[in-house]
Design brief:
Length: 271
């Protein structure tokens, strides 16, 4: 059964997609994913492995929904700034096809946590593939050109979300940054409550626990502005070692402004 928080994000996602006024394919795909029992079970088990077994932050249904929300929000800002996606530039698809790739990549990117942390992004591609094919076959029917390219971009976003391998599409780059932006204290609440003794990985929880708020809004110089508010300097680890690595390796980097601030201290601009 979905939690109230999951249901709340589901509603916001559906409302955002509806606001685009597209053909309906992205909405159909999103609703299929949100109702998919296999996906829900995989997300929940990924969280069990991440939090209970390994002591990491949330990598479950709330996190994957939040990343999807972040990705859709950034896609909206790019669209309003008239920035073309890779599909649009290459004239092989339209904005809605790109949006579908971002939704798939974001909502499925951490399924590999079911198998553990090491190489989880690559394991995620294996676990995500049948779900991606199931959804795209239903939404795009026998349009194999669209199915192939959307599947490829979604898998690229999943495989590249850690920022450790080269990606080339803007769609995959958005998934990468959207993942990095989910670092507020809510992700660390449960693992911190379970900590009894110091262990490797605690810095991720304590750093995330210092992140009060992450806003994704329209920028001044660039289409996307990411604003991070922190309660202590511990949050700088999350910004500089996690998010910045992903942004630096992302195809979306040129479209992003990044700011961070600790309490009342002077705001710092990274990009």
């Amino acid at each position: 059964m979905k939690s109230p928080r999951e249901l709340s994000i589901d509603i916001r996602l559906i409302d955002m997609i509806d606001d685009f006024k597209l053909s309906g394919k992205a909405m159909e795909g999103l609703k299929m994913l949100l109702a998919d029992e296999e996906l829900q079970a995989a997300q929940e088990y990924a969280n069990t492995v991440s939090i209970v077994r390994l002591g990491y932050n949330d990598h479950g249904p709330v996190h994957m929904r939040t990343v999807t929300y972040n990705g859709v929000l950034m896609m909206d800002l790019l669209k309003k700034a008239e920035i073309k996606t890779s599909f649009e530039k290459e004239e092989c698809g339209d904005f809605e096809d790109s949006l579908m790739a971002v939704i798939l990549g974001s909502l499925l990117h951490d399924l590999g946590m079911c198998m553990g942390r090491q190489n989880h992004e690559l394991h995620s591609t294996i676990l995500a593939l049948p779900i991606i094919d199931r959804v795209l076959s239903a939404v795009y029917e026998d349009d194999w050109h669209k199915i192939t390219m959307i599947r490829s971009a979604a898998l690229e976003g999943i495989a590249g979300h850690m920022g450790t391998i080269h990606i080339s599409s803007l769609e995959a780059g958005i998934v990468q940054v959207a993942d990095g932006c989910d670092m507020t204290k809510g992700r660390a609440r449960i693992p911190i409550s379970l900590i009894n003794t110091p262990r490797i990985g605690n810095i991720h929880q304590y750093s995330a626990d210092s992140i009060e708020k992450v806003d994704i809004i329209a920028g001044t110089d660039k289409p996307i502005r990411i604003d991070i508010k922190m309660s202590s300097a511990a949050g700088l680890f999350q910004v500089e070692e996690i998010l910045m690595q992903k942004v630096a390796n992302s195809t979306a980097k040129g479209h992003i402004e990044l700011y961070a601030q600790v309490r009342e201290e002077t705001e710092k601009r990274y990009l």
